[in-house]
Design brief:
about 150 residues, mainly alpha, about 0% strand, binds protoporphyrin IX containing FE
Length: about 150
């Protein structure tokens, strides 16, 4: 993952605000996601509030690990494999990034400027790529127990 030091700073600083407005971000995010990709609504079985907490926890872990992204790779690949089981397909990741950026933009306003948005998109696309690869690898060589 090749974020510049400045991009990492932008991600960290904007995430402070994201956490501050996390209730709004979550509501905006899921509303937008189900609007642009209605087919994913049926994939979620646990309560959206619980799901939202997991997403915020995961984003927090990502932001905290910005300087050691490589160390997160195995966990992200495994997370991607589970997402394959949840019936998440690669196109859904684009929908997620787009919905999340939309939600950040509406919750943070002018603070979420173009440069900050690009930094986040770069981070989320790197994460998505590892997860998608994890799912594809698992599909190519399923576990013996499955
Ligand atoms: C940046 C990429 C993503 C991250 C970091 C992420 C994170 C998570 C986490 C931490 C969980 C908790 C369960 C587990 O650990 O296996 C989860 C579950 C789930 N995620 Fe994601 N996710 C991502 C992308 C997506 C996308 C693109 C979709 C589909 C639109 C999606 C749909 C789901 C579903 C359906 C569940 C299971 C919920 C349930 O059982 O009801 N996720 N995700």
């Amino acid at each position: 993952m090749n974020l510049t030091p400045r991009q990492k700073t932008l991600v960290r600083e904007s995430f402070e605000s994201v956490r501050e407005y996390s209730d709004s971000v979550v509501v905006l995010f899921y509303g937008r996601l189900f609007e642009i990709a209605p087919e994913v609504r049926g994939l979620f079985h646990i309560e959206i509030r619980e799901q939202a907490r997991k997403l915020m926890d995961m984003l927090t872990a990502l932001v905290e690990a910005l300087d050691r992204f490589g160390a997160l790779r195995p966990d992200l690949a495994e997370l991607g494999r589970r997402h394959g089981e949840y019936k998440v397909v690669p196109a859904h990741y684009d929908a997620l990034v787009s919905a999340l950026m939309w939600a950040y933009g509406h919750a943070l306003g002018l603070e979420f400027d173009r440069e900050t948005r690009l930094a986040w998109e770069q981070l989320l696309h790197a994460v998505s790529a590892v997860m998608i690869e994890g799912a594809a690898t698992a599909q190519a060589s399923p576990r013996v127990s499955e």
